[in-house]
């Protein structure tokens, strides 16, 4: 459900068509309906035959929230996230009321399942959850080249190249493993921002299951084949934006970042990234080099493909691609809508500052580039 004033003049023809064809309206509650007219912009459930790409990945939650956590995960959420099942929906309503009171013009989903993502990511701290929600939408506004017409079919070339995938089996802690292979990308292939688009869509899909919201994810980054052209292409300005989204602009818990097969030049790459990392996140970066034994102490062989000394079959890059491409209509409804921040007054200090400060970033990049050449 999206809380938004019913102003048809602010809705594009495309969005209006989607509204008429695939969208249902549903009131949140009588008290909320009195304050805020709500429109459900979620795509309707689609029956898919067995054996399609979605077979191994959990489906999106139902329109009306019903907890899908196992008793073990309920206990884990209580211990790690301060989530109390008996207060869960009360907390959601409290966050919803804050949004309606403090940001009445914000075009955002207000359904229970969506808001729970932000509460869990900030351990049920209402103020921090609201700030994360604002950062989430501010990131879209500040980086239009990433979020304009964002849907899986527009990044099929990234998925086909094998820049990223998700391993089909989670680790023993229930965390899905996002596998990045930046060496597969060459600057002449397509703009770097397309990689960011594919990464963001992957995160959006990964965060849908409640299990991921509680367990978090693990990143495995294989730097085989990364050279000077890839390392120097994004620059600190793009690096800062990507890190900002992952740390402060998206409701997902990144529990570990495992780097493998990193070349000497990675010291220069990490020098670009590290200034933007919070201390807690920086401590979660683990450099393994070519030591598979070190990797296996962090990610067991039972869930790794044979390329990384694992017991699974060869890495299938097409499996995750099918998961995303099967959800194209879902993402059209989620992202191809009017600006959610139109008419919203944001605090003076926000996470994303647009193009401001790019001159300083350029100066920083000139210094860091010399480090890259030195490492190379």
Automatic annotation (TrEMBL):
Keyword Mitochondrion: no
InterPro entries reported for this sequence: CRAL-TRIO_dom, CRAL-TRIO_dom_sf, CRAL/TRIO_N_dom, CRAL/TRIO_N_dom_sf
A single cellular component GO annotation: membrane
Sorted UniProt keywords: Signal
Pfam families for the chain: CRAL_TRIO, CRAL_TRIO_N
This protein's record includes keyword Protease: no
Superkingdom field: Eukaryota
A Gene Ontology molecular function term of the record: phosphatidylinositol bisphosphate binding
CDD domains: SEC14
Residues in the signal sequence: 1-33
Protein name per Swiss-Prot or TrEMBL: Tocopherol (alpha) transfer protein-like
Source species of the chain: Mastacembelus armatus
Organism lineage: Eukaryota, Metazoa, Chordata, Craniata, Vertebrata
């Amino acid at each position: 459900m999206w809380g938004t004033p019913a102003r048809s003049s602010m809705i594009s023809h495309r969005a209006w068509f989607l509204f008429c064809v695939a969208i249902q309206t549903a009131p949140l509650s009588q008290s909320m309906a009195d304050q805020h007219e709500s429109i459900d912009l979620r795509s309707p459930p689609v029956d898919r035959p067995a054996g399609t790409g979605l077979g191994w990945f959990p489906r999106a939650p139902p329109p009306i929230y019903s907890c899908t956590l196992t008793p073990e995960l309920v206990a884990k959420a209580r211990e790690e996230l301060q989530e109390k099942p008996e207060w869960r929906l009360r907390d959601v309503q409290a966050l919803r009321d804050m949004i309606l009171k403090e940001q009445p013009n914000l075009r955002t989903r207000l359904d229970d399942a969506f808001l729970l993502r932000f509460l869990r990511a900030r351990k049920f701290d209402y103020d921090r959850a609201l700030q994360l929600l604002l950062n989430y939408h501010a990131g879209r506004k500040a980086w239009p080249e990433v979020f304009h017409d964002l849907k899986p079919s527009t990044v099929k070339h990234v998925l086909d190249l094998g820049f990223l995938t998700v391993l089909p089996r989670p680790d023993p802690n229930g965390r899905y493993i996002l596998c990045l292979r930046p060496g597969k990308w060459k600057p002449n292939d397509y703009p770097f921002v397309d990689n960011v688009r594919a990464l963001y869509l992957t995160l959006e899909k990964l965060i849908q299951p409640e299990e991921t919201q509680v367990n978090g994810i693990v990143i495995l980054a294989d730097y085989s084949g990364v050279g000077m052209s890839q390392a120097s292409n994004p620059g600190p300005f793009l690096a800062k934006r990507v890190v900002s989204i992952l740390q402060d602009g998206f409701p997902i818990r990144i529990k570990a970042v495992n780097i493998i097969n990193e070349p000497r030049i990675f010291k220069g790459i990490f020098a670009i990234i590290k200034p933007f990392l919070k201390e807690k996140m920086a401590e979660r970066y683990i450099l393994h080099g070519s030591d598979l034994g070190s990797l296996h102490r962090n990610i067991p062989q039972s869930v790794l493909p044979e390329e990384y000394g694992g017991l699974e079959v060869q890495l299938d890059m097409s499996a995750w691609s099918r998961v995303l491409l099967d959800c194209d209509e879902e993402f059209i409804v989620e992202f191809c809508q009017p600006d959610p921040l139109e008419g919203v007054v944001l605090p003076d200090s926000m996470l994303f500052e647009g193009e401001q400060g790019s001159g300083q970033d350029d100066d920083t990049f000139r210094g860091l580039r010399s480090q890259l050449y030195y490492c190379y």
